[in-house]
Design brief:
Helices cover 76% and strands 0% of the residues. By secondary structure, the protein is mainly α. Helix 1 (9-32) packs antiparallel against helix 2 (36-49).
Amino acid sequence: MSVKTHTHPAHANTSSRGRCFWLRLQAKALLVLGFRNKAHAVFQEILQINPDDVLALNSVGFKELNDKRLIQALGFFERALVLTPNNANAHFNVGFVCEELGRSQEAEHAFRSAIQIDEKLDRAWYGLGLVLVRQQRFEESLVAFKRNTELQSMSPYAWYQMARVHMEMREPEKALEVMRHLNGFEPKVAAQLERETGLKLDRPA
């Protein structure tokens, strides 16, 4: 009588899930301790066991992004998006990398998809504004940047971009209006715009 030595598929699946669970805990602990390279290796091991592990896909994607391997990063983020199509951040991640790659139309589509899922995702509005500027769709970009400032009123980035767009549209007075607002809470950014645009803010003598 022969004895079966192989593991039953159901048992194998349970074992794989359990190993992935503990590996995720290990990877998270390594990240907290600052051992990013070791955590990256663990996430890669997770993907060898389960190629559809979304946490591992995103984590490896961010590592590739930080290492400037944009095509590789995009591949991981796209795989995560297929698995979580209703996650606004998944769309944003794809849009961010596409914008970095200069693939403006794909980035625009991804950012708009993120916004459709979560209208208050401020960074998606900012990313959308950037890709619209790249396409010289300035009026539309101002709408996107303005929405970003409504969601993050004390962040200077969209205000800065709005001033630059107004200059591109030959609207120096509107650019100055934005710069005056910026000067109230981010004077360094306002001063940078003065240097870049040649416009001058009225300041006390």
